[in-house]
């Protein structure tokens, strides 16, 4: 085996391990997403079927594989299990690999992947309940603060400005237009502002507004009474995109104008 093949094999094993690790974290995120809105402890008690309440056996709780093995049904009651569970596991595994590919196996990888995992929880809970739990926003402050040490290129002044450059206008708009933005959205962008710095915070908001706007237009086009939508998921996509590739996107945009 030559050196090139050996390196490729080692990299494959490393990325596979990281994917499996991410999928396991994704399984835990499913627990958080289900339990937090219902105020059930995420630290106590075994996983259980949301339909019949039967505890899930360990060998039936293997990320993705168990869902396929059980054909998407509970082993006890036979009720269908939402495909969202394995999809979140797959997505979290893929995110872990993507972050590793961008940042390598480093402290930056740990911080960015942690942010991504928390944003998945925030996005899905907001999608389900139209609320962003304060506890998750507070938890997001931990990797945001750690980012100050692993991303020193983002200056403190930029981070401070980032905390208010979007969240403050959102607050003002909400004061004049009731329910324009949720309190959770405003707090989320304040924390994201410190994490990203003000240029990437503006970019994240722009991405969120574009994605949310597309969905809003589709809701208006439908003949349904309920026109409300959660904005948090689209902000989360914008935040993660800006964190992973914000500088490159901004540089590409400025280059269009010769700047």
Automatic annotation (TrEMBL):
The record's GO molecular-function terms, alphabetically, read:
aspartic-type endopeptidase activity
Highest taxon above the source species: Bacteria
Membrane topology (UniProt): Multi-pass membrane protein
Q: Which keywords has UniProt assigned to this entry?
A: Cell membrane, Membrane, Transmembrane, Transmembrane helix
Q: Which InterPro entries does UniProt cross-reference here?
A: Prepilin_IV_endopep_pep, Prepilin_pept_A24_N, Prepilin_peptidase/N-MTase
Q: Which Gene3D superfamilies match?
A: 1.20.120.1220
The GO cellular component terms are: plasma membrane
Could you list the residue ranges that cross the membrane?
Answer: 12-36, 94-125, 131-151, 160-181, 201-221, 233-256
Q: Which residues form the Prepilin peptidase A24 N-terminal domain?
A: 20-103
- Show where the Prepilin type IV endopeptidase peptidase domain sits: 116-217
Example GO biological process term?
signal peptide processing
Q: Where in the cell is it found?
A: Cell membrane
Q: Record's PANTHER family?
A: PREPILIN LEADER PEPTIDASE_N-METHYLTRANSFERASE-RELATED, TYPE 4 PREPILIN-LIKE PROTEINS LEADER PEPTIDE-PROCESSING ENZYME
Give the similarity note: Belongs to the peptidase A24 family.
Its name, as the record gives it, is Prepilin peptidase
| Species annotation | Acetobacterium paludosum
